Amino acid sequence: MKNIAVFASGKGSNFVAIDASIKQGIIDANLCLLVSDKPNSLSVKKAEELGIECFAFDAKQYASKKDYERIILKKLQEKNIDLVILAGYMRLIGSTLLHNYPGRIINIHPSLLPAFKGKDAVGQAMATGVKVTGVTVHFVDEGMDTGKIISQRALDISTLKSREEIEREIHKIEHILYPITINKVLEDLR
Ligand code: GRF
Question: Does any ligand 1 atom lie closer than 6 A to the CB of residue 12?
Answer without folding.
Answer: yes
